[in-house]
Amino acid sequence: MQQAPVDRDSPDPLEREEFERLISHQAISHQTANLWTIAVYTGLRHGELCSLAWEDIDLENKTLTVKRNLTNQNRFKVPKTRAGERTINLLSPAIAALKQQKALSFLRPSYDIDIALRQKGKNRIDKCTWVFVTGLSTHGKSVNCGYIGNVGINRLWHLDAKWE
Fold first, then answer.
1. Domain residues of the chain, as ranges?
2. How far apart are CA 114 and CA 125, in angstroms?
């Protein structure tokens, strides 16, 4: 039996003041500040942030339901385990960020997205209006059906880290 690899770097969590500086920095967009606020106050993973749709959010009841994940291979799947499919009660900073983000992406087009299920060969179609969106290509069409991908989030993180 193989042992799991050991992390070489010690965790370096974001301090509260670092987070506040990050989301209030003049060089980041409103969407980026909203994305990091949602990440911090919900604990969503990168793939869950990428696949977050307005159809998953109930602002009236202050909940967000995790229904899908974007893999590093750019495929949508349900979370690995049933426990990964969960409803998160939203804290007020997350609600405020979602309300701000709503002005940026709520009226964008929705897409029928193929979601791989846990049973081999089984899929479902989800209608998704993405919360976090990309821009348009040079031809005026949405990139990636409009969702921000894992690579995009990783780039944001590395760019944001340089601004300290």
1. 28-161
2. 5
